[in-house]
Amino acid sequence: MAAAPQTEVILLSSSTEPHGMGEPPIAPIAPAVANAVFALTGQRLRRLPLRLG
Question: Would you state the pLDDT for residue 26?
Answer without folding.
Answer: 79
